[in-house]
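Input (structure):
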C-alpha cells in the first residue's frame, strides 16, 4: 500500500531518489516524477500504462521559472500565464533543448503549467527540478480527484500519495497551443473558453476528430468509466429503453423518479457549473463501483464549464 501522508519532506526524499509520488493539484491528482530523471519518467509511463506518444505536462513553481523550460513565449502566452497562473491553464510552447524528449514524446514543444495548490506549490518550491505529472490514473480511466481514488487505482505500485484533500476544480487543465503566435484550445478544461477569451479575444478549439491530435487528451475515448455510459438530453424519455436494467443516473440539478434507477447523483442542486465540475469525476467513480448495467449522463448546458463537462461526458460515452 502507498503511504497517504501530508509529509512534504518525505515526498521530497522520494522524488530526489527517482521515485514517483502522487501529488494534489486543483485539477486532479498527478503522478509526479523528476522531469530530468529517465528512471522516474519511464516509471510514470509504465505505471499508468500510458503510450509513449502521449507527452507529459511539466509543473513549475512560478511564471519566472518558465525561462528554464521554453525557448520562446508569444505575447499572448505571457498574458494568459499572468492572468491564470498559478491555475488550471497549460501552455504548449517551443521547448528548450534541455527538456528530455521522453517528456514531450519527441515533439519540439513542451506543455507547462503552475498548479494552484498550496501543498504542491510548497513542494515545487523546495525541489531542484520541475515535476512531470500526468493524471494519476491508468490510461483511459477516470482521473482521480481524491487521494483515495489514487490508492484504489495503484495500491502497491507507488510509494506515496501526498494528501492535499479533494481537488477543488475537479477536471483537467485547459490546454492552449500556439500556431503563428495565435492561441488555439487543444483541450477544454477547468478554465472556460469565455474566461480565456476575456484575455486574448476569440480563440478556436482544435477539432477533436483529427487523426493525429496534438493533445492526446483529445483522443475520443478517454476519462472513461468501465460501465457502459450513454448521454441523454431527455432522461425521462431515454430511460424507458432500460426498464430491465440496473441504471445509474448522473444529473445536473434535478432528481428523477423512475423505478429502474438504482442510484442517481445530482451534481449541483443549485445549478452551479463549477460545483458540478468539481464533483463530476467522484460521481463517475462512485457510479462505476455499483455494478450497474448502464450509466445515463445528462447533457449539460453548452456554455462555460458546461462545455468542458460535455466534452468529458462524450469521451466517457464513446465506444
Ligand atoms: P494529462 O496530464 O494526463 O492530463 O495529459 C496531459 C495532456 O497534455 C495530454 O493530453 C498531452 O497530450 C498534452 N500535451 C503535453 N505535451 C504536449 C505537446 N507538446 N503538445 C500538445 N499537447 C501536449
Ligand atoms: Mg490524464
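Output (sequence):
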Amino acid at each position: 500500500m502507498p503511504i497517504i501522508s501530508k509529509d512534504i519532506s518525505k515526498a521530497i526524499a522520494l522524488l530526489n531518489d527517482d521515485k514517483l509520488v502522487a501529488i494534489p493539484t486543483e485539477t486532479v491528482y498527478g503522478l509526479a516524477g523528476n522531469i530530468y530523471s529517465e528512471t522516474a519518467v519511464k516509471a510514470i509511463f509504465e505505471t499508468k500504462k500510458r503510450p509513449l506518444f502521449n507527452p507529459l505536462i511539466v509543473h513549475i513553481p512560478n511564471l519566472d521559472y518558465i525561462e528554464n523550460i521554453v525557448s520562446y513565449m508569444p505575447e499572448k502566452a505571457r498574458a494568459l500565464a499572468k492572468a491564470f497562473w498559478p491555475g488550471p491553464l497549460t501552455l504548449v510552447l517551443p521547448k528548450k533543448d534541455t527538456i528530455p524528449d521522453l517528456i514531450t514524446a519527441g515533439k519540439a514543444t513542451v506543455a507547462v503549467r503552475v498548479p494552484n495548490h498550496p501543498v504542491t506549490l510548497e513542494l515545487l518550491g523546495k525541489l531542484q527540478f520541475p515535476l512531470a505529472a500526468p493524471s494519476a490514473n491508468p490510461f483511459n480511466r477516470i482521473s482521480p480527484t481524491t487521494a483515495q481514488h489514487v490508492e484504489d487505482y495503484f495500491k502497491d505500485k507507488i510509494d506515496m500519495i501526498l494528501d492535499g484533500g479533494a481537488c477543488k476544480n475537479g477536471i483537467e487543465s485547459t490546454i492552449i497551443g500556439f500556431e503563428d503566435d495565435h492561441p488555439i484550445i487543444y483541450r477544454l478544461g477547468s478554465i472556460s473558453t469565455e474566461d480565456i477569451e476575456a484575455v486574448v479575444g476569440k480563440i478556436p478549439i482544435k477539432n477533436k476528430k483529427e487523426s493525429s491530435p496534438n493533445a492526446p487528451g483529445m483522443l475520443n475515448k478517454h476519462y472513461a468509466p468501465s460501465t457502459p455510459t450513454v448521454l441523454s438530453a431527455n432522461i425521462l424519455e431515454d430511460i424507458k429503453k432500460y426498464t430491465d436494467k440496473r441504471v445509474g443516473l448522473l444529473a445536473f440539478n434535478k432528481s428523477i423518479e423512475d423505478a429502474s434507477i438504482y442510484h442517481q447523483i445530482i451534481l449541483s442542486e443549485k445549478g452551479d457549473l463549477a460545483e458540478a465540475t468539481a464533483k463530476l469525476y467522484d460521481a463517475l467513480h462512485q457510479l462505476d463501483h455499483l455494478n450497474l448495467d448502464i450509466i445515463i449522463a445528462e447533457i449539460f448546458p453548452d456554455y462555460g464549464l458546461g462545455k468542458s463537462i460535455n466534452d468529458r461526458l462524450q469521451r466517457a460515452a464513446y465506444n
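Notes: The chain has two domains: 3-200, 229-317. Residues 273-288 form the longest helix (16 residues).
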